Amino acid sequence: MATKAPLVSQLSPEAPLHASKLTLIKSLTESVELTSIPFHYTFSTNPIEPASSDPEDSIPVIDFSLLTSGDPDQRSKFIQDLSKACEDWGGFMLINHGVPESLMKAMVEASKEFFNLTEEEKREFEGKLLLDPIKCGTSLHGRVDEVLFWRDFLKVIVHPDFHFPYKPTGFSELASEFCKRIRKLVRELLKATSENLGLENCYIEKTMDLDSGFQLFAANLYPPCPQPEHAIGIPPHSDHGLLTFLAQNEIGGLQVQHNGKWVNVYIPPNSFFVNIADQLEILSNGKYKSLVHRAVVNNKATRISLAIANGPSLDTIVSPAIELVNSESHSVVYIPMKFKKYLELQQNHKLGQKALLDCTKVQTV
């Protein structure tokens, strides 16, 4: 049967993404007494469907210490637990990971301090282009968003070259240590993932060129919203890289899609929520599914989340591992694509479910 690659539009990395004078949502909520959301923030005229409260919809918990214990039986349990979580959920809670709780709390607090800077100070880090190393803004693509999302953000490229705002004092140093520790965890998790997929231990590390891997730090601020049932922080989507790590303050709002239902994600203190992203689904030829998730808002408290996306190097061409394509029943599902191009294309797609990933699937005729 013949196959053909899908047609996808392209966007230059020099294309502008954000309007320079779009009011940050924090400034908007603090400048006026809002009793309803402005019309351009209305994500849905119907109340957003609630998440499941069924105890059976509990997020898998993976104990990282089992991998590093030196006990073969415990390591085997870790490998099995990780494989099941990746196949059944596409995400898991990571505990006993070795990142100090004090560092995690300090990063949340420093992010809060950044968002508490004046709007004029934050504009200094605005950024306008796709691969600008530092971008501070609101919603998603700012002026090109048909509906504005109830969040402000700081996005920083922290690897292979480290960038960061110089204020507030000490934020950059904290972030450097925090992101370095996460990269070490990513390498270990991807080694275990390679083993789960029947590949060489360092297959993903080598083929994805993790020494030059693209790591993006994102801090998100979701202020209280007067009509949370009609607005959204971030709509349903999957991430672009290999693995995304997420931490937050005590305020929940992350929801994941599982078996056709939305499930609330409670992240205990000193834990990370880790989700599979699009490039790992591509590399596994669809065995592992990138996780669709969203951020909902509330009318009582400000939520701060930290999302650290870990991907291949920008120049890596990502394709299904040849070892996973061995028969008619396991034919190639995704076309090869350079990771940088995938990022560029993602900026030209509406954020929703797996819109871009579906476009990169091999089409049969």
From TrEMBL:
**Pfam families xrefs:** 2OG-FeII_Oxy (PF03171), DIOX_N (PF14226)
Q: What Gene3D superfamilies is this protein classified in?
A: B-lactam Antibiotic, Isopenicillin N Synthase, Chain
What are the transmembrane regions? none
Asked whether the UniProt record includes Mitochondrion among its keywords, one would answer no
Tell me a Gene Ontology molecular-function term this record carries. oxidoreductase activity, acting on paired donors, with incorporation or reduction of molecular oxygen
Which key words are in the record? Iron, Metal-binding, Oxidoreductase
The UniProt record lists the keyword Glycosyltransferase: no
Against PANTHER family, the record matches this protein to: OXOGLUTARATE/IRON-DEPENDENT DIOXYGENASE (PTHR47991)
Protein name, as recorded: Fe2OG dioxygenase domain-containing protein
